[in-house]
């Protein structure tokens, strides 16, 4: 028994020695392996200086390999600018010389620049008198042809000169439509303006986003109206207002297109209204009074029907009434149908005349106010709810602007030391 126990003890010690031997042998090999690959595994990163030198050497080699950039030619750009200016001056001088051959009623010399011509009252009066002649809108009229060719020159200053007479042309044209006079000259000018706006807008509509009043503010979204299939608020789809609808190209003026074509011409005029002269705006206000009728009233007699304004056939009905009556009364002289597509740009221009100059021009403000009153009475007569709301709002805003209580600037800091609650 003692011999067996001794043998087991010896075996246990041998196995222990063998185990420790193998363990230390493996540990030795691991340390040797780590020491051998010490430089590759635990090597420090390259210094920033060496990295910078490497980049400089690569950039220098790339710089020598790539061709140098071509030098800028400032002389060529200056030459193009001078050429464009000379072409513009040539167009302006040609237009001025052509206008001098048409205007023979004035004894004064026509200004040599377009900017001076735009502000010249004598020349403007002469052109206005020629446009107001009974046969001024004919197709063979020299002034209409000059206006058409001048606008087609694509020179901004010349186009601005043509736009200055848009209120007078539109007023004469629309007032003469029921008389069935030949107006191919006026129609050519209006179609040129319409085509220019159609091209510049690519036929697209002009829209504006209106904040949804059902939300607490413009930074919140309402949780009302949510469904399982649609997580968006349904009311947000109705926040886009169309200021001007899409434009289709037209080559002729028909009775159903007349209001739209003239309305687009007035929209183009409104886009440049800050550069228009005071006389041009006064002419527009006078035309609005004529379009609305005298004080917005019409004759109430059994022999005359009420002229509708909300249908496409209103122009035809107006012409038939005039032909049946054998002419127009003095009260209704110049009265035309006023659909919304024509009334909308009219009200924008009147709004500028009322508030654009901050009341500095009293005469223009009074003329615009009279035009708004005439259009308001006309809309009441036609029972046109849109027109009643728009014209009435303009008149109400003017009353608020003239009220002395509203002349206080609440943004100014008061010097009073007492704060009243």
From TrEMBL:
Localisation per UniProt entry: Cell membrane; Cytoplasm, Cytosol
InterPro entries registered for this protein in UniProt: Hyccin (IPR018619)
Region described as Disordered: spans on this chain: 47-89
Leader sequence residues: none
PANTHER family: HYCCIN, HYCCIN RELATED
Family designation: Belongs to the Hyccin family.
Name by which UniProt lists this protein: Uncharacterized protein LOC104770488
Gene: LOC104770488
